[in-house]
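Consider this one:
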Amino acid sequence: MAGPLVVLAYSGGLDTSAIVPWLKETYDARVLCYCGNVGQGDKELVGLEEKAVRSGAVGCVVEDLREKFISEFVFPTVRAGAIYARTYLLGTSMARPVLAAGQVHAALEAGATAVSHGCTGKGNDQLRFELTYVALAPQLKIIAAWREWKFRGREDLIAYLKEKKVPVEVSPAKPWSRDRNLWHLSHEGGILEDPAMPPPKELFVLTRDPADAPDQPDEITIDFEQGTPVAIDTVPLGPVELVERLNEVAGAHGVGRADVVEDRVVGMKSRGVYETPGGTVLRAAHRELEQIVLDRRTLNLKDSLASRYADLVYEGRWWTPEREALDALVNVTQRYVTGSVRVRLFKGNVTVQSRKSPYSLYSEAYATFSKDEVYNQADAGGFIRLFGLPVRMTAQQAQKAETEAVAD
């Protein structure tokens, strides 16, 4: 009788290559591998099915999730203005829920009874995968290899695969770990574990060193409809093409580097160096368009909730009523965030050159320093008297108390 079917989130790297035979051995399981394409590049995807079968899997499902990733996860997070640790644009955090959701769908279609992942017990990704599993299919058993097996590190895994006669390409240890998708490229480990050490020049892949960037700036215009970017220089583009184009032009100018010391959900601080060229441009443009469309109190409300949105994304709580409620609020704020923003890219910087919207609340007639016919400056006197009434009353009370104290 065939053993239980387990669907494994699979990358083809050392860890997941070892998990396949380990699952077969430990659980007498059949293993179906699952890989979602979120823009990690052909190098990681070519030959993945064959590699999985060589490791002992019954097969491997490779699914293109790029458009879903950008349109249903990235753009809503951009519209929310969510940033973690003040500078992190949540590239890895947003990718995990869409990958885990694809894995769950594959598991249910295949009739699997369990899902598995290769996340370590130290990181955030275990939360992002497992909270997705329990939200979408709580009946599935979860197998987290790094929390169960006896292996302690890379050397143990290499020895195990050799023993099991599982072919795996092993290269000298990289000085740092990378994770790539359409939105960003992250770098961790190695020399970066010392926050006093600057990232070496050869670390970066998506962004040119600003010192070596072109001596002439580029200017581009991004069009938004209800907070969602839809075109560059008036040319309509789909979500994937738009982000790819921005990554290319912004990366050439060294835009989008972030060196972040962040707080992991499990309690420790860690350091990551992120490259998010297109995302950095979209963040700047979207923020400036909001600035001319939204009133002061709506902006303040939205900004106050942006950090909460960032926290839930970072912690893997995507599939929750909290996120749905925040999205509902964001959707209301974005109804009139339609228009265009022109930005200049130069030597690692993004500077806004212009913003236009048919729903702009900016009125030159009111804001001008020149003579106008719409604003009676004398009206400000009564406004200030009312606005400052609490200040006046507090001061009067203090004076009264002081007078009484002197009299005593």
